[in-house]
Design goal:
heterodimer; A: alpha+beta; Rossmann fold; SH3 type barrels; OB fold (Dihydrolipoamide Acetyltransferase, E2P); 3 domains; five-stranded antiparallel beta sheet; about 35% strand; B: MetI-like fold
Chain lengths: ~375, ~220
């Protein structure tokens, strides 16, 4: 894959240092991480609104910044910027907002181009309105239209959905995805919401405290977070710590809470920790299986990583139940009052009558225990 | 009304209008610099501009004499070169009114400019506008009501200026005697009817100004 975007930034600010390097190919690169990790600062550097102390920024072979040599001013970068909160000019109509960056075009061409963008974004009927007269979703489209009208070499979006209500967010996330793929502009999007990052991004760059902790295609990130901190930033549940018993290129045995767990090792990563060393891993709550009692005793040769415990708490999430499980093992529970969080659909919860029956056997396929390299 | 009364009114209006124009030309750029730029001596500049707001007007007037009087730092070379001095001319009344009104405009306009979302300016930069064009097309239009409110206040202050005007321009009927000075003279000499007319006019004007500034201020937020 050819890289369209090359980012290397060192910027020292009072009390914070941004030091990142990453590249991205076609599509949308998402900068994901907690607030204050340096994501917006990166966008500002790309737009030319903030000058890095060191580094190099290249978009499709065009050098926008090279410390001490090149610093293209923001006016000449042709970078479209959708600000958090949109930053629409409140004193200008929708059409004047969208046409704002087209001042250098002849008047007739400018009108034509503005109308074309408004049409493509379904805003034609609102052309003469002021931003304050629009809904949140319409404002987002105006902000997108204004940034896209200049035919940007790169589109930057800072938390484009954070100004919206939850139900609207979901609809507009998909609309935004459609617009981005239709326009085919290289784009960098900032978010602290992993669902948003996963839905909108082709590549996800994980930021933490001014550094990149992982940069990977989105599916790789989802299933192979590079480390325990990345897993925690992603909000992954059941991030656990055990002890290595034995590691081979395709299996890792882990001792945890008195159980001997067997996990799949990734041969591509060739991660071979020494025996007795600490190891972090995670188990997605929806991949823990409850063993039905009406089908006879559990068979250890069939049910991998078999264990037993009790439901000590539960929460209703509307379509799923989240169960807190405490295993039958001495010692402190791994996560406060419980060892594992298990998620079951409402239907399963009802059929198995979990509200009355609190003791269960569980099994976890070895492919569902994901090792987090140290 | 006596000719002196009419002269005082005409002079006051001329002085206040001119002082407001100079305030707009000097004060708005100054407010922008103080709101948006960082530079050496910014705190000092801020202090100098604001000082007339708290100093007794006669003290400000004294400084103006030291600066512009016939033997002043700037006044002396000017007098040597041209034989002309600004002291005791109606221009001096304009200078005094301008300096006294400036802090009101600068403070109001600065607050208005500071309240403009910086992301709007950044957006304009990424859309190809220079800082200068951005100021004209985005910042100032959005700060407009605050700036106008500041100008209205500056006009009112210029119209009512007394102490500094007296120090630098004197109280020469028909030449430098603005309405406030004419009122003072009229009280001293016991011309009751002149006092009443002038006081009524200034009171009415001040009311209009306060209402106007209030409306502009309300729309600015």
């Amino acid at each position: 894959m050819s890289e369209r975007l090359e980012v290397r930034i060192l910027k020292r600010l009072p009390g914070f240092t941004l030091e990142v390097a990453w590249t991205a190919g076609d599509g949308v690169a998402v900068l994901f991480g907690p607030s204050g990790a340096g994501k917006t600062l990166t966008l500002q550097c790309l737009a030319g609104l903030l000058r890095p102390d060191e580094g190099r920024l290249v978009v499709d072979g065009r050098v926008l910044f090279d410390a001490g040599r090149v610093d293209v001013p923001p006016q000449a970068r042709r970078v479209g910027y959708v600000f958090q909160g949109y930053a629409l000019f409140p004193h200008l109509t929708v059409a004047d907002n969208v046409g704002f960056g087209l001042r250098d075009l002849p008047a007739a061409r400018r009108v034509e181009k503005t109308a074309e963008v408004l049409e493509r974004l379904g805003l034609a009927e609102h052309a003469r309105r002021l931003p304050r007269e629009l809904s949140g979703g319409q404002r987002q489209r105006v902000a997108l239209g204004r940034a896209l009208a200049i035919d940007p070499a790169l589109l930057l979006l800072d938390e484009p959905l954070s100004a919206l209500d939850a139900p609207l967010r979901r609809a507009l996330r998909d609309e935004l995805r459609a617009i981005l793929s239709e326009w085919r502009t290289a784009a960098v999007l900032v978010t602290h919401d992993f669902t948003e990052a996963y839905r909108l991004g082709d590549r996800i760059v994980v930021y933490d405290a001014g550094r990149v902790v992982q940069s990977a295609p989105r599916s790789e990130l989802l299933w192979q977070p590079a480390s325990e901190p990345v897993a925690r930033i992603m909000g992954i549940r059941n991030v656990l710590r055990g002890t290595v018993v034995k590691a081979t290129p395709d299996r890792i045995q882990i001792r945890w809470r008195g159980q001997l767990l067997e996990a799949v090792n990734s041969p591509s990563r060739s991660y071979l920790p020494a025996a007795d060393s600490p190891i972090a891993f995670f188990i997605r709550p929806e991949y823990v299986r409850l063993i039905r009692k009406d089908r006879g005793a559990a068979d250890p040769s069939h049910h991998m990583n078999l264990m037993e415990g009790a439901v000590v708490g539960e929460e209703d999430f509307g379509t799923t139940w989240s169960l807190r499980i405490r295993l039958d093992a001495p010692g402190a529970a791994a996560q406060g009052d419980h060892d594992l969080e298990v998620e079951v659909p409402h239907l399963v919860y009802e059929i198995l009558e979990i509200d009355r029956d609190r003791r269960w056997q569980f099994s976890i396929h070895r492919g569902s225990i994901h090792v987090l390299p140290a | 009304m006596s000719p002196d009364t009419l002269d005082a009114l005409a002079l006051s209006l001329r002085v206040a209008v001119l002082a407001t124009v100079v305030n707009a030309l000097v004060g708005v750029p100054l407010a922008y610099l103080l709101a948006r730029r960082r530079f050496a001596g910014k705190a000092l500049l801020d202090l100098l501009v604001t000082l007339p707001l708290v100093l007794p007007p006669t003290v400000t007037g004294y400084y103006l004499i030291v600066l512009l009087g016939r033997r002043g730092w700037l006044g002396a070379p000017l007098y040597a070169a041209t034989g002309w001095t600004i002291a005791f001319t109606w221009y001096a009344a304009v200078v005094a009114a301008t300096v006294m009104a400036l802090p009101l405009l600068v403070r109001t306009a600065r607050a208005a400019i500071e309240s403009v979302d910086r992301d709007l300016e950044k957006a304009a930069y990424t859309l190809g506008r220079s800082e200068w064009r951005t100021t004209l097309e985005v910042t100032l239009p959005l700060a407009r009501n605050g700036i106008l409110a500041g100008l209205v206040l500056a006009f009112a202050r210029a119209l009512g200026e007394f102490g500094a005007t007296l120090m630098l321009a004197g109280n020469i009927p028909g030449k430098t005697a603005t309405v406030p000075l004419a009122i003072y003279t009229a009280v001293q000499t016991g011309e009751q009817s002149t006092v009443l007319v002038l006081v009524a006019i200034l009171t009415a004007l001040s009311c209009v100004v306060l209402v106007a500034a209030g409306r502009l201020g309300a729309r600015a937020t």
